[in-house]
Amino acid sequence: MLTIPRHIIPKCSVINNCRLHQCFSSARSVHSRPQSSASLIRTSRYKIYEAVPSPWYQCLERFLPYAFLRGKQNASLDTMNVLPPSTVRGMKVLDKTAFKKTVQVPVLHIPSAKISELGKCLNKKMFKVVGIKPIAEIASDKSTKLLLLDPIKCPTVDSFTDEEKTLMQNLGVDLDDWQWHDIELSYENWTHSEILRAILPKETDGITGFSSVGHILHLNLKDDVVDFKEIIGQVLLDKVPWAKTIVNKTNIIDNTYRNFAMEVITGEPNFMTLTKENGFSYEFDFSKVYWNPRLGTEHQRIVNTLRNGDVVYDVFAGVGPFAVPAARKKCIVFANDLNPDSFKWLQHNMKLNKVKVDVHTHNLDGREFIRDVIKPDLLKRWQTTEGDISYAIHVVMNLPALAVEFLDAFCGLMVGVEKSCIDTARLPTVHCYCFSKSDDPCMDARARVEGVLGRRLEEGKHGVRTVRNVAPNKDMLCVTFTLTEDILFDTSSSVIVTKDGEKESSQVSGEMVKRQR
């Protein structure tokens, strides 16, 4: 039995002395014998020691001078590490040859006829890297195959549960025939996330993710990794099959049309793309319009609430992620966007998705659309009593950075109209999106909406829901409420927008203003 001087046993909560003693006691030497196998596997011919299961690897490194895992023993901690070599850390110019390394994995001989049954049982313990199958052929013996095991999850025979051991023995697997084999790994055997994690400095946050828009991969690199942007782009271009253009956002979205400046890191400088969402196709120039592929679930959620014949006013329609599926659901759609490029692709995408119903598209400012399109259409519908009038009316305002500010256009919108003209059974439901950095984002979103409207939202007629986390301490929310008569006819405590687009004086309460801030 291997013994270790007691004074070097670490005194920490993660190591139990009894357990550590048990692990070392179970370590035993074995000899591997040469076997014919697939070309990707080389048989180890020298003495090895079975390694101790994680999480004691790091602690075991301290005991190497005491004759455990040293010299030419195959199952050393370094050769069991199946991640890219540490020598690539800090690389800025991609050198694929620097990723070559030899790792050692445990193997068992298994009957070819029992692969299916063993695969289900041992799937989580198999050796899994890109481009290498965990079950290898043996050229000289068709009745037997080699099962490659993960050296970290399965460093010894004792790593198997009693149930797994019993099953393997019943299926003809000789557990005493435990061997270690060399496998050559290279750049092609790791995913983009594994490669980038190995390259980028440890003190950085790395690449938290990217958005895929057709053939374009869109990054938002932080300052601490910008110096590595070329190699990041090259790795993604190599590893993501559909990627042809890798871009990085170079500023925040702060212009009138809500698109952002970007630079091509690598690949084709082609921003024309075709992407799919929820079964619909959208084509556009990504450099000139706004598109967020992470909002597909929210788009579908709103569309699922719509019924055939409902009326949808989409104030900030973009290229049509709400308007197109709503129109295909045979809703009556009024879609608007100030960006002329978005307006162009909105119309194009209606045709691309074979929308057969009439869709009213507009290229107007949001307040102008509310005043000159939504108002007269609402009045016309409220005054119509013929036919089916059981449809619902929805106003979608998906411009999170600014949409709340546009709610003032509804305050006093119907001033001068007889209240008898209003059908209170068919008041519009507004879906207004916003961002919040508050500790209580739902309360903050509601307070901001109430601050602009100049009144509290009626209980039972509103809801606030978190859509997604955009960034640390920043959430996107949707405030849904009914556009009541009090809002539409208010003249005393609301902001009124004149026909010239100018605001008249507001008497919003001090409490509301304070909460809005």
Description of the structure:
This protein is of the alpha/beta class and 517 residues long. It is 23% helix and 21% strand. It is built from 13 helices and 20 strands. The protein has helices at 17-26, 57-60, 115-122, 162-170, 192-199, 229-239, 296-304, 323-328, 340-352, 366-382, 441-453, 485-488, 510-516; strands at 29-30, 41-43, 48-49, 101-111, 135-137, 144-148, 179-185, 211-213, 216-219, 245-249, 262-267, 272-277, 280-285, 311-314, 332-336, 359-362, 393-397, 429-436, 462-471, 474-482. Strands 16-15-14-17-18-20-19 form a seven-stranded mixed beta sheet, sandwiched between helices. Strands 2-7-4-6-5 form a five-stranded antiparallel beta sheet, with no helix packed on it. A four-stranded mixed beta sheet has the order 8-9-10-11. A hairpin with a 6-residue loop joins strand 5 and strand 6 (144-148). Helix 11 packs across helix 13 (510-516). The protein is elongated, with a radius of gyration of 32 Å. The model is unreliable at 1-74 and 493-517 (pLDDT under 50).
Secondary structure category: alpha/beta
Biggest β-sheet description: 7 strands, mixed
Chain oligomer state:
single chain
Shape: elongated
Tally of helical runs? 13
Mean pLDDT score? 81
Q: Tell me the strand order in the biggest sheet.
A: 16-15-14-17-18-20-19
In short:
One of its GO terms (biological process) is mitochondrial tRNA methylation. The chain is of the alpha/beta class and 517 residues long.
